[in-house]
Amino acid sequence: MHFHKYEKIWLSFGIVSLIVFLSVVGVSAFSQNHTPSGGMDTIDPEKVNETAPFDNPGVTQLDEDTYQVAIVALAFGYNAPDLRVPAGKEIIFKVTSTDVVHSFTIDNTKVNMMVVPGRITTKSYTFEEPGKYLILCNEYCGTGHHMMSTEIEVY
Amino acid sequence: MIAQPERKIALWHLGVAYTAFLIGTLMGVLQVFIRNDALQLPAWLDYYQILTAHGVLLALIYTTFFIFAFFITGMSKSLGSFGPKVRLFSWIGLWVTLLGTVMATVMIIAGEASVLYTFYAPLKANGFYYVGLALVIVGTWISSFALVGHYMVWRRNNKGQLSPLFAFMTITTIVLWIIACLGVVATVLFQYIPWAFGWTDTINVELSRSLFWYFGHPLVYFWLLPAYIAWYTIVPKLLGVKVFSDSLARLAFVLFILFSIPVGFHHQLTEPGISNFWKFLQVVLTFMVIVPSLMTAFSMFATFEISGRKKGGTGLFGWFKKLPWRDVRFTSIFIAMAFFIPGGAGGIINASFQLNEVVHNTLWIVGHFHITVGTPVAMTFMGLTFWLIPYLTGRRFTKRMQRLGFVQIITWSIGMLLMSTAQHVLGLMGAPRRTAYSGYNDHPQAMEWFEGIISNHVTMAIGGTILFLSAMILMYIVIMTMFVSPKAETPEQMVEFPLAESDMSNTPKWLENWWIWIGIAAALIVIAYAIPLTEMIQHAPPGSKGFITW
């Protein structure tokens, strides 16, 4: 098989950039913990309201610098009373669904979590700027999908 | 000209393809007007029905029927006329696929299946929607095996020879398609259908999503590879040159078999149930597909330059001006390729692990596939349609039709540029995809999305309207060349199937040893999927009941 000289240069350039690129993504992911939301925890989708932490949804302070926010997504809204969290502290979001697949997406942040029934999605995030943020569902969940939203206040 | 029976089969495929195209694009233009509140739907019809129909009819039905029309014509042209069995099974494949299409479409119109073409559980559609989709797949398998049979007969009669490039690439696409479908067939047959008909109570949601995406990503390569076949084998003929390198073209194609399947997790990067290790491994495998893509880009530009210089183009870029810009068959495909440059770059962004969080399920993604499948693939198919239909009907592709062809591809480009740019920008700002209206009770943050020069409802609506006009011009050309245009009388009026010569003298034989490629593909699939899927089954949470939320 014959590779033209220019094609060799072109492909080597491509493959080297590929390696550099993947290394940046990989190092950032595994040594600096920049991973997308996820988690391996499971839950009975019919017993969400009896299972901790979703039996008491909302904000809980875990320690000085860490808060946990438990949210139940359902068609077409979020069971998450009083969403107020401080800026500059680590916020751990835990979300699950009692019915279909939803998302928990906070506009203008990197919080963009798929919510799958039977699973608990986790994401840690630190808000920089105080203000009111729009939360919305960006996974189609039925007729009221485009109404599914709420708000979080960062102080 | 190919034999009459094959022409008839191919024309029927094109007829179904363009019927789906007509309805699908109409559904598209309705959406942009519903979204900006200019249009109120009657009570019996809702936005998500229209969205489902738009996705299914364009992304699944138009593409599939067009692809088989192209394959049937090309295989008959390059390997010779079909035998009676190949013809019979091609017809059966057509009817089964069509039956499935009609079944699924009826369910969508009846409001029994507003689950979109991704049909994520536990949204539960009418069982016959899933049966319809399964029949579509089974039908394409029957058509695929007919073509594989035709190819095997040729191989038997031409022992030790490499098959023509078109046939090789067709078989590559079919191999990819059959391996890819295993995932969706498994989930539909063993999970969705028993659950939708009430034979089982619950469904393992995460498993169904993963099996869907095992299929969902190679599905886009099933659309793209036929376009690549045109780029590799048709374009050089239009330019008056040979295929740049037969062996590299074949190598690029087999690499697509290897690296388009074990990568589905990159559609599931922000969801639970898959550990970061497996997500990242599939991200790495996803990126490997860049290698054959770069090889294709190189081949294309090399072909352009060789042709331009042969026609007297000099200097660094002089050859560019010598390309046959007045030939709509070429210009359409060139524009299609140009759109694929930002399209491919966007794909790299989407698959970049943590970067995916910024764009996942936003309008950016919608913009992305309108400049991948919606233009590079669709406009290549349009460029093929211009000559494929008159070639099959024996009619002329008149000067008037050629001019209309230019109007069609230029309007499509402008419309798509406006609409997809608006979608990309809106998505970056956070506007979600698949929403009937995204004002969120006039929330200030949501209002901000639509205040840009490009990112507003008007740009998207103008783009969508131009696209629809363009689609109607194409429908006119299709109907004219299919039924009305004058018959070609003289050899000059005959429309040809422009198939380029490919020099196979330096092509190694192992490239056509399918067992090597199927074997490596299977090994990669096992590596990427065996452990995470086993975990999903063994550590499954209690399953989900079905929900009808529309």
Structure report:
The complex is a heterodimer of chains A (155) and B (550). Chain A is an alpha+beta fold and 155 residues long. Chain A folds into two domains: 1-35; 48-154, Cupredoxins -  blue copper proteins (Immunoglobulin-like), CATH 2.60.40. In chain A, 17% of the residues lie in helices and 35% in strands. Chain A has one helix spanning 5-30; strands spanning 58-63, 66-74, 77-79, 84-85, 90-97, 102-106, 112-115, 121-126, 131-136, 149-154. Chain A is elongated. Chain A starts with a helix and ends with a strand. The relative contact order of chain A is 0.17. Chain B is mainly α. Chain B has one domain (4-538): Cytochrome c oxidase-like, subunit I domain (Cytochrome C Oxidase, Chain A, Up-down Bundle). In chain B, helix 11 (328-350) packs antiparallel against helix 14 and helix 11 runs parallel beside helix 15. Chain B is globular and about 65 Å long. The mean pLDDT of chain B is 94. Chain B: The chain crosses the membrane at residues 12-34, 54-76, 88-109, 129-153, 165-193, 213-235, 247-265, 277-301, 330-349, 369-392, 404-426, 458-484, 514-531. Chain B: GO terms for molecular function: cytochrome-c oxidase activity; heme binding. Chain B: It is a multi-pass membrane protein.
Query: What is the element string of chain A, with H for helices and E for strands?
Result: HEEEEEEEEEE
Per CATH, the superfamily of the largest domain in chain A is Cupredoxins -  blue copper proteins
Spatial extent as radius of gyration of chain B: 23 Å
Give the fraction of residues assigned to helices of chain A. Answer: 10-25%
Largest interface: A-B, 68 and 73 residues
CATH superfamily of chain B: Cytochrome c oxidase-like, subunit I domain
Termini separation of chain B: 51 Å
- The DSSP helix count of chain B reads 18
* Secondary-structure content class of chain A: alpha+beta
CATH class of chain B: Mainly Alpha
Number of strands of chain B: 0
Radius of gyration of chain A: 20 Å
- Which class of the largest domain in chain A in CATH terms? Mainly Beta
Which CATH-level-2 architecture of chain B? Up-down Bundle
Query: What sort of overall outline of chain A do the alpha carbons produce when their principal axes are compared?
Result: elongated
Structural class of chain B: mainly alpha
Strand content of chain B: under 5%
**Unreliable spans of chain A:** none
